[in-house]
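Can you give me the bound-state structure? Components:
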Amino acid sequence: MTRRDAVIRAEAAGALTLSDARRLRADRARQVADVLRRQVLYGEFRSGALPAEADLVREFGTSRNAVRDALDLLRAEGLVERCPGVGTLAVAEKYPHGLERLLGLAETLREHGEVTNEVRTTGLIAPSREISSRLRLPEGEPVVYVERIRRLNGLPLSLDLTYLARDLGEPLLGEDLAHNDIFVLLERIAGQPLGRAEVTLEAVNADPHSAATLDAPRGTALLMVERLTHLADGRPVDLEFIRFRGDRITMSGSMHRS
Amino acid sequence: MTRRDAVIRAEAAGALTLSDARRLRADRARQVADVLRRQVLYGEFRSGALPAEADLVREFGTSRNAVRDALDLLRAEGLVERCPGVGTLAVAEKYPHGLERLLGLAETLREHGEVTNEVRTTGLIAPSREISSRLRLPEGEPVVYVERIRRLNGLPLSLDLTYLARDLGEPLLGEDLAHNDIFVLLERIAGQPLGRAEVTLEAVNADPHSAATLDAPRGTALLMVERLTHLADGRPVDLEFIRFRGDRITMSGSMHRS
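Here's the bound-state model for the whole set.
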């Protein structure tokens, strides 16, 4: 019994209705695109080429139009490109970032290449009350501010705005910020490991200036991360606002029911 | 000593350079917007009104132009609105979703209101090899497919495409899917709790059809979640592709260094 036969048999049995026929082509395209997206991102098409359209039609049991629409969706996301005479090629470079262990970007992406940081701004600044309060500093206490564009193998991944407690931030500014994660430097300066971080993730459309800074199209989807990192002793020392290019990064981890 | 004096003193001491003056107005606007964004989202402006521009200029120690640009950025994200004669009002409705405990949407957002689900499609389908493989099913084994628009207090939050192992999925289709999380129903049918889920998050721009389905502007940033959920006994039974409207949801949790 083929897969399709099994479905038709189940449908004929009347227990469930196969509503495929009623579904819109766009809905089918989305289903196909979701499955292919993951395969592209996880490098399952080793040769770089996706299966031929006719094979995808058979694999997904759908129409050729829905398969073409699915490939168009992935092309709009920059994950594949259509090459006349060759077919559809996977062109994504999306890198995995863990959600569980607190790691700097260079630590996380070590196997994918070299992370370099363009330091756009550093200095001592008078923080707003909100920043002081989150770093548990008395109002009026200056903090060290660092702004970086972070690249992997030369491609912009993120724009990071970082506020640091002054006693750790001032020595940090004398270090090689272009080639080191701030996390690693902070641990060396503090003489103790980092502990816990509170993280908030959002998807936002890039404003024109942030998009330009990241060499991305205007309005591109950004994975925006706000992260407050504490030393092992519990003191909050590092507050970051990170804009990841959505087309270059995925975050993954495990969740547990209890 | 005021905050600004402290900074000027530090600068004069020559240890650090306050590079504020060299920074672009757009960079300052982004800094201000990042801090205000969080305050808006966490409801810190209880009355709904943000401080007056002059107060923000003082608070952030920046120019009036940078403050105005920051408010424009938040307005473009749909977080605030400018009301002539009143000022700038927080209008965001962004809901927190935990990253740690595996919870259904209704369980997560209980205190924020009622979650209802519009079931767009259900049925037994012949899955692609990728879906079969992730659910550890023999090739050709049909799975149950459920597609839902999920709303909080009537507002669309997400579009969920769900693939379920047949032995649990078929009984599930007889349940009240409009008013129950699939997680809760699965546990009842399986007679055991859920266990672990593997989760991947991305930020993507919505394709036109997904945007229309979620009543969102074309190209809006979506928080795209792929989640494979296992029963407590380890069997993978529920594979979901979830598109959250980026302007309605945040994800938060803790990360640990070791």
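A couple of observations. Chain A touches chain B through 99 residues (CB under 8 Å). The domain at 95-252 of chain A is CATH 3.40.1410.10 (Chorismate lyase).
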